[in-house]
Amino acid sequence: LTPQLLKAIWKERRDSLKAIHLAESLEEVAFVRGEPNAFEREIYPLAGRKPFSRPKAESPVKYLEMLECLDANTIIVHSIFIDRDDVEILAREGASVVLCPRSNLYLSGALSPLPLLKEAGIPTALGTDGLGSTPNLSMWEEMRTLWFYARSKGWEITPQEILTMATYQGARILGLQDLTSLKPGQEASFMVIRLPWDMSPQEMASFVLFQGDLYLEAVYIKGKRVL
After folding, report:
1. Cα(21)–Cα(98) distance, rounded to whole angstroms?
2. Do 154 and 201 belong together in one domain?
3. pLDDT averaged over consecutive 10-residue blocks of the chain (227 residues)?
4. Residues 172 and 214 occupy one common structural domain
5. Among 222, 159, 162, 215, residue whose Cα is nearest residue 190
6. Cα distance between residue 61 and residue 70, in whole Å
7. Most buried residue among 84, 107, 151, 219 by CB atoms closer than 10 A?
8. Residues 117, 212 within the same domain
């Protein structure tokens, strides 16, 4: 999107949720820095588009900040190539982040620096991206991929935190956090997972993360069983 179009969208929809895929590749970083990049070298010619003029920025996050296109209604999808300065900007503006672990690893070989996001208190959820970069849209696979990647990096994260990212945090970012609880008068959308034995809350979280899809017995949406 041109700077003019981005600014127009944020001005027109200041009070609406806006999701933007950002900092997903090193080519994107080169693009906002005004350096040689695959977008202008290969992709634009294939699409019959010409490069457009734009201000230069050190990073995609700083590019959006420069254009005043960051706010509490902004959802940043991916955010792989960001640093501490970028995280501080996102936190200050009140933006949220969505990680798509399998897609991110397939296309870029890395994930967003989750420890920095946690430290800054940035709401962070999980997504699947699309079938162009993942074999299916399984949230269980996304959760497990994040778990193993975090372990390989020495990040401190619990199964409970990952489950929260896949459920409550996503709803919270979309302003639908009330849908994540079961209480009188609330929309009854939930899954039923059979536990083979009594478990502590910690054991239950681990079981659901690693085997929940194998023991899924039912899915209800608005009180109606659909599976």
Report:
1. 9
2. no
3. 94 95 97 96 93 95 97 98 98 98 97 98 97 95 98 97 96 89 84 95 96 96 92
4. no
5. 222
6. 8
7. 107
8. no
